[in-house]
User: Fold this.
Amino acid sequence: MGTPDSYQERFGSVDRVPPPDFPDDAHPLARNQFTHLFFEPGEGFEYGWGIYCVQLLVERLGGKDRFFEYVDHHIFGALGMTTSTYRPALAPHIWKRRLQMVERKVDASTKNGKAYLVARDKDTYGLTCSISDLARLFGDIMSPDCKLLQRQEHRDLFFMPQLTPSSHAHQSLLAETTNYGFLLPLKQDVSHKVSWALTPPPAMNWTAAGALVEEDGTLPGSCIPKGTVAFEGQPNIIWTMNREKGRMMLFGTQLLPGYDVKAHNLAVQFLYDAWKTFG
Assistant:
């Protein structure tokens, strides 16, 4: 499964390939998010919305009517994550503490193209966490006494490479620089895919949690050690976690758009300095 961006890149138009046909009573996630398979399982790699399949399985097998109810009980409740929710607008104690979502826009009418910030409260929805709650979550995942995943083989999935080296799936992962380039700085007025192109490609793989650094020094200047798992999120959030070293580094803002050069490069520099100092 991919995303609408995958259709755009592969076929030149989101609408060129008709979406999958689902019956009227199908789950809204299936109707709105699911895409065609771009390749047979195991024969390629495409970051997409397959996580929604997991959400449907959790709803059906987890003993709760809704996915967020399962998460509230089995994850947030189990770890005491009292300032985390999937419905921030309905949680006053979280909503009033939130860092307001803003967007950086450039005023093209001025000669110097001065940037300014505008409110984007409409984009404040979905999973919302405090930094202290995230520390509880990642701390538990790295702990030998993990509360969420009590079987070692399940915890290991977050840190074990999934793709066979040099396989087509692994080559597909490396060919799309966005899969790992979020750990690299951006260049002004250059697309992120070009900014992040490395030759040869870095020693990276993929786990159940995200991108995996497989060699020290494979990301130039980063000081991010091998064994580190990393991922990014909207709007400009990057986290890194290394179980062997017992370290987790996170940088988050509420600034849109994604890949804003100033915000992204500040996050990358923070991670580089944090790993250099504490890693």
